[in-house]
Amino acid sequence: MDAMNSGGSHIGIVLLLVIPFAGGVLCLLEKGMRNFRIARITAVLAVSAVTAVVFVLLPAVLRTEYLAYSLGAFGGPVGIELKIDGLAWIGAAVGSVIGLAAVLYSIGEGISDPYYYTLLLIMTGGMIGVVITDDLFTMFVLFEIVGVAAYVLIAYTGKRTALLAALRYLILSSIAMAVYLFGVFALYQETGFLSMTRLKTVVGDIDQRTVRLVLAALFTGIATRAALVPFHAWLPEAHAAAPHAISALLSGSMVKVSFIAVWRVVALLDTGSYRRILLWLGAAMALAAVARALCQSDAKKLLAWHTVSQMGFIVAAFGAGTPGSQSAAVYYVVAHALFKALLFLVVGATITAGGERDVYRASGYMRTYPGLFVLFLLGAFSICGIPPLNGFAAKKLVLQSLDSGSARVVYALLWATAVGTAASFIKLSAIFWRRPPGEARGRPEAAPGAAGEARGRPEEVSGPPGEVRGRPEKAAGAAGDAPESPDRRHIPVLVYVSAGILAALCIATGVNPGFWQGLLSALLHGHSAAAGVSVSPVYTLSGIIESIGALALGAVLYLALRTRRGRLVTARIKNVTVSFDGAAILVVLGFVALGGLAFLGS
Amino acid sequence: MAAYVLIMVLFLVGLWAVLAKRNLAKKIIGLSLLNTAVVILFVFAGGKDAETAPILLGSPGLIADPLPQALMLTAIVIGVSVTALALGLVYRLYLKFDTLDIRQIEKALHGRDE
Predict the structure, then answer these.
(1) Which of A161, A182, A188 sits opposite B112 (nearest CB)?
(2) Residue B56: inside a domain
(3) Number of domains present in the structure of chain B
(4) DSSP characters for A313-331?
(5) Which among A170, A189, A462 is the nearest to B111, CB-wise?
(6) Distance in Å, alpha carbon of B13 to nearest chain A alpha carbon
(7) What's the pLDDT tens digit per position in A384-407?
(8) Chain B, nearest residue to A175 by Cα
(9) What is the pLDDT of residues A365-377, one digit of tens each?
């Protein structure tokens, strides 16, 4: 059975796990030899090597349905099989490229702690492992490996919010993983298999109610990692509190590989109802999360809510279930990984250098950091769906695939989300173009906006006492670094390099969508089937008009929210928060609802 | 059947502790119980009364399925490491806030972003 469609064993597959894990251990050698930058060198080499191996594997993956490797040559039902098919390859590619950018950026930011790089490599390796394993229990182990590394990295700064965010994530995913294990148990009792390839052959023979219950359990476990509503409540805090490179890694790749795992489990066990749920859930969560994003005052929390919102696009496209929508979903996975990681890195670098992360107070970064502004614009244009960047192509493909029947409602909801996205990125971009308050007073006619913000500020200022205490230090540090201008800080070259790589990829995957769509379809459905999926043109006049329309309406929405009433609404939505216990209760309720569905369904 | 009910009770007690206890250390104990309940479930269902341990020395008699036991060894190790990490985080939080009560911690953070 195994040999049927397999391209045989390939040593490269196991290297994808060995290189990052071994690299992670090697980084620790720096503890003994402090004079050498072993950790940083090893980290760069390891992620570069993994990226290289991933791309070396591409032709082989394209030739066959999948490549397999049996760990320890055990074989049979007890062995652990690694398997790379098209979907897994895409996950591995995303994981390794974002990992590379994250490592370069961390070095640029001057992080030298070997433990940090060890954990970063382990997390990258674990994420690749999650997508290439064929075995549900091994997937659990790898999820926990990713998780443990992620908890520590989120808490890395040691700030109060970071510690609490890490603990919240730990508790949520531990509950979810216990539920996941229960699903694994039920499946093993019923079939005696844990390998997804083997399960596929027997899943039709077992009691459908059990299958649905198992799916509910597995889905709860993985969807918590993928931050699908209602399992998402850990994400905004964790993304906002983590070091910038880790935010990029969490948002760019961890959430994506978890979604790929959701994809596999749903594809394996679902008989149709989950996809229908996901179609609507995706639309709802895209819109709800963008409303939350629009109301945030913390720059990184705003980006974090956008991750939930953008996952909605992906989930909705996946839920639509047609071959075209599947490749659109994958396109969106790749595009969002690239532009969201870019945005986190650029905004992170800007607020670190500028010392102010409140969207209402930061100003004038365009003049101090023009390079970062250009990179930010590329990312922001991409997420807002402006041609010729990959966000435009991805958004159009998703919307096109939903343009029929009742899915048109989803189409409309997602388009409304695009309006909100545009509005919130206009809001975020104000940290670059808004004039510093002192200047605004000097030239009142030039900056009515800044004056308006100044009026709006008192509501927001009440905030964080701890953070305010922290700020003067940072400002002082900035002044010390660059004597020629008091608020200008040197941006390390590697920060530009890492963000530049991602920006270049955003452009590269945007200008020629036909090619990428063809490649992704071939990876996803195989060459013969891919030929049947029509590669629809993305750069149509109506598509561009739709994009411009969303942008214009977004600008209107932004202006509307700047009015007095708008600010009240914003503040109200911002204050709706989920408590620590509430987040965990949401996960449990989500599972109970899905489990209930298993019994209610025919 | 009674055993399954007991396991279920253990699971629910753990879940209740995680969700309802205000003390963070007790929440972590709850997580441990949750994890243990699943481990016991695997091990209990993985073997029947007459079966012996799956150690193949001579001729294999009636042995328990070794796979669930092997899996659970891994799960136990993971559970221990996650618990240790969680306790580390809780301790750091205690140092910052001088309390283990989650509501007080959230109150102390209130007004701070979210």
Answers:
(1) A161
(2) no
(3) 1
(4) HHHHHHHH-SHHHHHHHHH
(5) A462
(6) 13
(7) 988 889 999 999 999 988 888 788
(8) B31
(9) 888 899 999 999 9
Chain A nearest CA to B28, separation (Å) = 8
Task: Tell me the residue ranges of DSSP E strands in A372-511.
Answer: none
Q: Please state, in angstroms and rounded to a whole number, the distance separating the CA atoms of residues A38 and A57.
A: 28
Q: Which among A144, A164, A462 has CB closest to B78?
A: A144
Alpha-carbon span A454 to A461, nearest angstrom:
11
For residue B40, the domain's CATH number is: 1.10.287.3510
User: Nearest-CA neighbor of A121 among A108, A136, A131, A106?
Assistant: A106
> Distance (Å, rounded) from C-alpha A21 to C-alpha A501?
24
Residues of B in contact with A141 (CB under 8 A): 74, 78
Q: Which residue has the tokens 């531990």?
A: A174
Residue A500, amino acid: G
Dihedral over Cα of A391, A396, A397, A402: its sign = positive
- Helix H or strand E segment including B112: none
Residue of B nearest to A151 (CA): B85
Q: Quick one: how far is CA A342 from the chain centroid?
A: 11
Q: Cβ(A549)–Cβ(A402) under 8 Å? A: no
Distance CA A335, CA A324 (A): 16
Angle at Cα A566 formed by Cα A561 and Cα A569, nearest 5°? 120
The residue range of the domain holding B8 is: 2-49+63-109
Provide the pLDDT for residue B111: 53
Contact assignment for A163 to B74 by CB distance below 8 Å:
no
Give contacts of A579 with chain B, Cβ < 8 Å. Answer: 106
Verify whether the Cβ–Cβ distance A581 to B112 is below 8 Å. Answer: no
Cross-chain CB nearest to A170 (options B11, B38, B86):
B86
CA distance A429 to chain B (A): 19
Which DSSP helix (H) or strand (E) runs through A104?
helix A86-108
Distances (CA, A) of A392 to A326, A335, A475, A546: 17, 9, 38, 10
* Rounded percentage of chain A residues whose pLDDT exceeds 70: 87
Check A174 against B82: CB less than 8 A apart.
yes
C-alpha dihedral, A402 to A317 to A517 to A376, nearest 10°: 110
* Residue-level pLDDT at A444: 41
Rounded mean pLDDT of A146-161? 95
Is residue B57 included in any domain, yes or no? no
Three-state DSSP class for residue A63:
helix
Contacts of B18 in chain A (CB under 8 A): 171, 175, 584
